[in-house]
Please model this.
Amino acid sequence: MASDMKAVKLRIKSVQSTMQITKAMELVASSKLRRAKTRAETARPYFEELHQTLRDIANGNTDFSSPYVRPSSADGTCYVVIGGDRGLAGGYNANLFRKLEADSAGEPGEITVLPIGKKVVEYAARRRIPMLSEQFAEVAPIKISDCFTIAKLLCANFREGKYGHVKLCYTTFISMMSQRADTFPILPLNDLEESEDPEHLKKIRNLILYEPDASQVFDAIVPEYLAGLIYGAVCESVASELAARRMAMDSATKNAQEMIDKLQLNYNRARQASITQEITEIVAGAEGV
Model:
């Protein structure tokens, strides 16, 4: 009986230690989340406007040829995958990888990954997926300047015909309780969804004017657009990871408290049974005398 009580007591202390860690991680994620959420919400209009502008450029310009617009003869697809640096974030990374697998299942040719985040590097290495570069193995320190570097690298490889398509795979921050893994194409630009409004397309063609040369200007600004898209996706992904971690740690803390309550109840019952047994033995001994 005494050994059982000691084991329960040690178990309670162990769960309490774990609960302190999960609570601390929840508080850290909550404090970082406020800043990340603000950054994501600030970047989102820019992100959405860039995406719409890319669609307009792709659908509204047919008077010149650009390597970023015409389909490539290559079959391979390069995915820019933005994941987390650490685990303990619920299904954040798992949902992202499932989305990547579902999207890439129908792609012709070999897929290549440009990983942003340690977990993406680990995933690609484990699945033996070729990686374009491991320079951006951590998502936390990614800045807008890094996104320009990534965009230029992608554009250079696409122009050289190494990939037929380039896609972005990231997690959209919907709310504190909800995040959604998404993918969408970024190169070539004609992969983007076409506008259904012919008047809108006509207006685009009439409004867009490039000086001095349309092709040169177009080729120069596309990497800038892609850098903005990637930075917006990074902001969304970081906020999503922190929100997922806060929820996971909050759930873990609650589960730990429930387990402590149950263990404490079992300990109290065992202690009460031990005391009752001792009293019974004393009474029985006194009656025997």
In short: Residues 53 and 225 are 9 Å apart (CA to CA). The chain has one domain: 39-242. The chain has a mean pLDDT of 80.
